């Protein structure tokens, strides 16, 4: 299988269950759901990994995507990601994690390959299970908690009413950034998305 034929694994990080659906920590799931609708993919339980997965192509004859939402809760996301990467024979360089990021202002996007996990337990688990930090991250800024609120409580709370007014647009933009990484590469995407 050549690199051109090899699918991309796009992992939305989050927590399974209806009670977590609107939380800041689940923005990765929101982006994965939107990408699935764009490629006409339907999520279903994968037979080899503790994850819901969907498959589709970006455009007619375009790159193949495997979209995943781990079902293990955030802290153990790495196991399902590694199982899917092995099943589809996808190298870490073609794995994209979409996740919330406390250290970036709300609505800002940052794309990078490799680097630290910044205290993000989902990324830490992925790095451990994949055996490398060299996968792509699409970081969705949620900003720091107000006042003295515990960051753990903040990420496990719903977006505010003000934030929700922009959320659909921002999730759409994050999905665009994922498509851009697949079609044009990390560097092009950084130049296009980091300025705004």
TrEMBL record:
<dbReference type="Pfam" id="PF01195">
    <property type="entry name" value="Pept_tRNA_hydro"/>
</dbReference>
<dbReference type="GO" id="GO:0004045">
    <property type="term" value="F:peptidyl-tRNA hydrolase activity"/>
</dbReference>
<keyword id="KW-0963">Cytoplasm</keyword>
<feature type="binding site">
    <location>
        <position position="73"/>
    </location>
    <ligand>
        <name>tRNA</name>
    </ligand>
</feature>
<comment type="function">
    <text>Catalyzes the release of premature peptidyl moieties from peptidyl-tRNA molecules trapped in stalled 50S ribosomal subunits, and thus maintains levels of free tRNAs and 50S ribosomes.</text>
</comment>
<feature type="binding site">
    <location>
        <position position="75"/>
    </location>
    <ligand>
        <name>tRNA</name>
    </ligand>
</feature>
<dbReference type="GO" id="GO:0072344">
    <property type="term" value="P:rescue of stalled ribosome"/>
</dbReference>
<dbReference type="GO" id="GO:0006515">
    <property type="term" value="P:protein quality control for misfolded or incompletely synthesized proteins"/>
</dbReference>
<dbReference type="InterPro" id="IPR001328">
    <property type="entry name" value="Pept_tRNA_hydro"/>
</dbReference>
<comment type="function">
    <text>Hydrolyzes ribosome-free peptidyl-tRNAs (with 1 or more amino acids incorporated), which drop off the ribosome during protein synthesis, or as a result of ribosome stalling.</text>
</comment>
<keyword id="KW-0694">RNA-binding</keyword>
<feature type="site" description="Discriminates between blocked and unblocked aminoacyl-tRNA">
    <location>
        <position position="15"/>
    </location>
</feature>
<feature type="binding site">
    <location>
        <position position="20"/>
    </location>
    <ligand>
        <name>tRNA</name>
    </ligand>
</feature>
<feature type="site" description="Stabilizes the basic form of H active site to accept a proton">
    <location>
        <position position="100"/>
    </location>
</feature>
<keyword id="KW-0378">Hydrolase</keyword>
<protein>
    <recommendedName>
        <fullName>Peptidyl-tRNA hydrolase</fullName>
        <ecNumber>3.1.1.29</ecNumber>
    </recommendedName>
</protein>
<feature type="active site" description="Proton acceptor">
    <location>
        <position position="25"/>
    </location>
</feature>
<comment type="similarity">
    <text>Belongs to the PTH family.</text>
</comment>
<keyword id="KW-0820">tRNA-binding</keyword>
<dbReference type="GO" id="GO:0005737">
    <property type="term" value="C:cytoplasm"/>
</dbReference>
<comment type="subunit">
    <text>Monomer.</text>
</comment>
<feature type="binding site">
    <location>
        <position position="121"/>
    </location>
    <ligand>
        <name>tRNA</name>
    </ligand>
</feature>
<dbReference type="GO" id="GO:0000049">
    <property type="term" value="F:tRNA binding"/>
</dbReference>
<dbReference type="InterPro" id="IPR036416">
    <property type="entry name" value="Pept_tRNA_hydro_sf"/>
</dbReference>
<dbReference type="InterPro" id="IPR018171">
    <property type="entry name" value="Pept_tRNA_hydro_CS"/>
</dbReference>
């Amino acid at each position: 299988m050549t690199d051109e034929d090899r699918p991309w694994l796009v992992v939305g990080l989050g927590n399974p269950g209806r009670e977590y659906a609107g939380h800041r920590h689940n923005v990765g799931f929101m982006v994965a759901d939107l990408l699935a609708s764009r490629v006409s993919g339907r999520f279903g339980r994968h037979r080899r990994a503790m994850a819901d997965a969907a498959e589709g192509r970006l455009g007619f004859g375009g790159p193949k995507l495997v979209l995943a939402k781990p079902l293990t809760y955030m802290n153990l996301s790495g196991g399902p990601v590694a199982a899917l990467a092995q099943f589809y024979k996808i190298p870490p360089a073609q794995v994209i994690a979409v996740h919330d990021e406390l250290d970036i202002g709300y609505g800002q996007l940052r794309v990078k390959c490799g680097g630290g996990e910044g205290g993000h337990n989902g990324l830490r688990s992925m790095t451990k299970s994949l055996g490398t930090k060299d996968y792509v991250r699409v970081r969705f800024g949620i900003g720091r908690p107000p006042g003295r609120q515990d960051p753990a409580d903040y990420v496990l709370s719903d977006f505010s009413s003000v934030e929700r007014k922009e959320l659909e647009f921002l999730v759409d933009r994050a999905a665009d950034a994922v498509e851009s990484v697949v079609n044009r590469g990390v560097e092009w995407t950084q130049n296009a998305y980091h300025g705004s």
